[in-house]
Amino acid sequence: MRFMEDIDMTHQTGSITEEFLVAFSAAWNDHDIDLLMSMMTDDCMFYGSAGPDAHGQVFRGLESVRKSYSALLDQFRDGRWSEARHAVAGDRGFSEWLFKGTNPDGELVEVRGCDLFVFRNGKIFFKDSYARR
Prior knowledge:
alpha+beta
């Protein structure tokens, strides 16, 4: 299994701004899976905050990441990310947020978390999520 430390990151081009991450966050709140995926590279990777590995659950490629994102949006149909703060430095960035949503059992879930990003060619190549309850 390949992880970020095994991936050649020498070909990082394109310019990402904080406004790009604001739009990415807004797409989550709009539950707009097509817009979210248009902001990811075809060979994107996503490390979910929970899962069987030290990296959480690992998703590779546009279709796998799309299924993961869709599952989260389907599980929390009223899910909202607020209190967002974003920063970008070259080909890296991060977002901090507070998530609130109701799960299928009717339980309100509140999670504070952050995402770490690696950008390539004006899109998100890698998204690594961390969350705590």
